[in-house]
Amino acid sequence: MPELALEQLRRWPDVEAPELQAHDATDAYLLDETGLDGYGPDEIVVIGDRYGALTLGLLAAGATGVRTHQDGASGELALAANAERAGLEGYASLPLDESLLQGARLVLLQLPRGLDALDEVAGAVARWAHPSVRLVAGGRVKHMSLAQNEVLARHFDSVEAGLARQKSRLLRASGPRPTASAWPRRARIAELDLDVLAHGAAFGGTALDPGSRLLLQHLDRLPAAGTAVDLGCGTGLLAATLARRAPGLRVVATDQSAAAVASARATAAANGLDIEVVRADAMSAFDDGAVDLVLLNPPFHIGATVHAGIARKLMADAARALRPGGVLWTVWNSHLQYAPDLRRLVGSTEQVARDRRFTVTRSVRTLPASGSAR
After folding, report:
1. Which H helix or E strand runs over 270?
2. Which has fewest Cβ within 10 Å: 79, 177, 303, 349?
């Protein structure tokens, strides 16, 4: 049986940097507290495994038929790459649905930051897993709250918190109470004349975030035809607005988040709009020079860490996919000062708007493509 050293795991193709690790103390705590005795093949499920530490740790310990769900496409790709390097196999990456959880008797969960995401996951486990299922959820103490216990208590009879270890803590839930799913949620965005549907882990939920609002207030000079991409689409509101304003455009919404992609598809369907929705890491679904327009509202966190690496990765891959003369519209938190990065990675960049919190820029692809982020 191959041995697994968590320190050897990589984050690639996600952003890599000396201060960013592919595992944390919560992974080790969950693995140390998980006994495999009594669990057969296909009875263990992992949810929220960032780069494969939990899934591969279980396989190295002798588990078989591990089913896993990662919201991020880059996490799935990192898991596959780490598994190949470690010589480990015997897992399946699946969506957050019955195929993932049917018959599961043990679920290991890296706690998501958002309570809505936790509610959707906990509800899915209670609905589809075996009645004897044990859910063991771990997180960093500084990001945990009693509200997480309360969310779990909506779906399980028993919720117990364990002792902290290396600034991580585990929550154990049992006694599932199955209920109908409340996801995705739906709301009306009156100012856009659009309905939005959102799964628990989708950025922004059913609201229009203020950065996107500022971008849409100043978005003009749209091409009459060609391909436009809402990169990091979230619930798909930018893509939906593009499809309304420029009916001659082929509009594609793309995000690495499975929850975002499901939300964007539901938003497009609810509004009767013809939008292609793709789950992909950055712009990996597009060839070089294939795109005329990209809209980008980049995240500035990687997990819990404030880091500019993910925004720069998205900018660079947008530049690669844009045709010469193609345009990237970007909105960003003003204190991050992304204009020099945009000029270096994309080309000529002008500030279009700025308010107390956000800056909107328009960049024209005037530089050679800066290389694929794939």
Report:
1. helix 258-270
2. 177
Domains of the chain: 6-176 (3.40.50.150), 185-364 (3.40.50.150)
Which parts of the chain are beta strand (E)? 44-47, 66-69, 91-93, 106-110, 134-140, 156-161, 168-176, 185-189, 194-198, 226-231, 249-255, 276-279, 291-296, 301-302, 305-306, 322-333, 349-354, 358-364
First to last CA, the chain: 31
DSSP state of 112: P
| Sign of the alpha-carbon torsion through 368, 370, 373, 374 | positive
Cα–Cα distance measured from residue 54 to residue 27, given in angstroms and rounded to the nearest whole number: 6
Per-residue pLDDT at 127 = 97
Beta strand spans in 82-167 (E): 91-93, 106-110, 134-140, 156-161
Q: Are 291 and 282 in contact (CB under 8 A)?
A: no
Give per-residue pLDDT as tens, 137-167.
999 999 999 999 999 999 999 999 999 999 9
225-272 tens-digit pLDDT: 899 999 999 999 999 999 999 988 999 999 999 999 999 999 999 999
pLDDT of amino acid 92: 96
The DSSP symbol for 90 reads -
Report the chain's mean pLDDT, rounded to a whole number.
91
301: nearest Cα among 187, 203, 163: 203
Return the structure tokens found at 45. Answer: 């499920």
Complete DSSP assignment for 297-333:
----EETTEE-SHHHHHHHHHHHHHEEEEEEEEEEEE
Task: Tell me how far CA of residue 202 lies from CA of 67, 267, 316, in angstroms.
Answer: 22, 12, 23
